[in-house]
Batch of 2 targets.
Target 1
Amino acid sequence: MPTETVYGLAANAADPLAVAAVYAAKGRPSFNPLIAHVADLAAATAIAVLDERALALAAAFWPGPLTIVAPIADEAAVCDLARAGLDTVAVRVPAHPLAHALLAAFGGPVVAPSANVSGRPSPTTLEDAIAETGSFAAVWLDGGPCQIGLESTVVSVLPGEPVRMLRPGGVTRGELDTIVGPLAEAEADARRSPGRLTRHYAPNAPLRLDASAAGVGEVFIGFGAGRDCDLNLSASGDLAEAAANLFSALRAADHLRPAAIAIAPIPLTGLGEAINDRLRRAAGFVG
Ligand code: TXA
Ligand code: MG
């Protein structure tokens, strides 16, 4: 299933066998819960308890690249396995027209983790999605290249807790702050933010961050003008363009079978927070 962020491997959220097949295709640890995708706000409120803060976020960013973790309202609609046994559910209304059409036609929540094998870069084209997990899919929907290219931002909105950012993504911290004030950080406890595995989004070649040039045998991915690089995330230094190109650039660099992939520093502002998060995880630095 295409979405505006990345391609997803989609399954009926209510069907534990279908959900188990998704975990198996990705080789994903089953303690890492999935996002339930729905067509609109009404469908979201049927499965999740959305308080005033969550509703304000939904009004501002849905449909779009924001995932809200909230208490589960309908345990059958999003099965235990999809939630990894948690009493919360991650819900998102994607903006891609084909995703919307699929969700509206199906009528129930659809889990869709990024369609990569666990630990690998997320696919941003149908071709990359097929190369990752296509052999497990019954049907492929071609929605063209993903516009955003980075996964959704995940926030938790739980009773008695501040709104927390669990994963940076397509909606920036600055955009969220304007709706719900300064965000709290995810708790250190890994079970509350289970998506944060050490090596994630990783190409086969090792990744060297904040590089200024290619070393021997390295492919160099640049950012901004004036760099002598093999691939450039954005020659004009545009972070949205860099986000859209990130995972396909990592794949393209990997196809050259380099000793390592060197990548230029990316500013931490705006979408740069999510880009740097993915790069640090791809390099294996973040627990
Ligand atoms: O943009 C996206 O979000 C893409 C597209 C396909 O929609 N999907 C995606 O799904 O990135 P996935 O499964 O790769 O990432 C889901 C993230 C993980 O970090 C997971 O730990 C977190 O959401 N998550 C899901 N349910 C949660 C919950 N109940 N509590 C905390 N985190 C949760
Ligand atoms: Mg993923």
Target 2
Amino acid sequence: MTTYTLNQENLNAISERVSTPKYNRTQLTTGIVHIGIGGFHRAHEAFYTDQLLHDTSITNWAICGVALLPHDTKIYQTLKAQDGLYTLMVKEFDGSLSKRVIGAITELLFAPEDPSKVIEKIASPEVKIVTLTITEGGYNYNEATGAFDDKNPSILYDIAHPTQPKTVFGYLTQALKLRQQKGLKGITIQSCDNIQGNGDMTKQMLLSYVKLADPALIPWIEQRVAFPNSMVDRITPATTAADIEQLKTEEGIVDAWPVVCEPFKQWVIEDQFSNGRPLWEVVGAQFVKDVEPYEKMKLSLLNAGHSVLGILGALVGYTTIDEAVNDKNINAFLEHYLKQEVVPTLSDLENVDLEAYIASLLQRFGNVSIKDQIDRICSESSAKFPIFILPTVKANLKLSRQTELAAFVVAAWAIYSLGTNEKDEHLNIKDALKDTLHKQAELASQNHPEYFLEIESVFGNLKTYKPFVDAYVKAYKTITKKGVIIAVQNINLSQINSI
Ligand code: CS2
């Protein structure tokens, strides 16, 4: 079989083998600038937009992908060499693979190379939306104080060097200022990260930055920039060498960075845009007045469920999420955690069948073709726990409800942070707070489990809640002594009611 390198020139030949964009990519204009062109964006927003360009005659919503950080060089160079094209490989439940070349990203910029290009792009009249996937940790939010972290060295750098920014806040501020100077219309800044109230959070953090860097701009932003909240969902594991090889062997397509994902997808967006938006509803997105219930449900069930499986699974020695969820003890633990501790905090969700949602989650986690990496799930847990798990804990503590299972997961995380699993294998911990986590985990292991809870930027004042701390210490000791599985069995989950 002839092999073709994925790029615009070879697209015709490639279209004989997999589905490719049928719209004329060269005639599109860029309506969206997206910051953070990782797998998640490419499996989700770029996929929806590709479908829209494909199914309609719309031409004004192509995407300019921005790689913001120096370590994004590789993705930038790869996509640039492929003219923005990549293959989306959807791993179906029956093990089959649907492949489709996505063409919605038509421009690419590498911010560290020339910051002014990014600023000017966002400040061009045809651009109406900036979307973000900058990860949960990217919002510069301090869990303990609830405020913008104005001591962050990169933030201080951006304030001192406004035209050469490094952070998303520095870029957005300069670009909005330029839009104001040019007398352009407002713009929408749409977060696609897993954060409760992601739009509100973006607005709050950006305005905190602008207050320090350029306060005169605040009224313009308040009047002309919209920050819709949204819930985004599609499990997107990291691409492996085997995925790249499979695409080459099966289809003869040489794609240096395809994206793999599950078949399920959901996008719920608050309909608040200041300067127009794509008709994403034509291709399945839901526009609603209030997205909060959807976000809450997804973060506290799906994302929290992932963290539970990731941390417990990693300690046991599993490497993929399906292995963890298909372990009957971990599965029972997770199901009880979701039903017993999370569901009571979601009582205000109307018309949502939570039992069915949880059943579908367990099925999605169990998709054996996906092989979602536990390493991916456990990465940046210090940014994930405060969003996925701790709000549930706080809501339960407030009403004196049980937090025993969440305490168990936090105890497992403290032990995980020592860096070795129960098989004595090294754990590859990737976390901005890695050193702090490790230091507190070491102290905790010297007969003071509660020291791990002292990391205020993660746990806030959780250490002052005695019922939680007692359950945590008890779980810590049992897991250390007997291992995760026996400790799970000791909890006697059968006594816990289901919903
Ligand atoms: C995961 C998410 O990063 C994580 O811990 O829970 O990436 C998850 O796969 C997506 O939010 C699914 O929509």
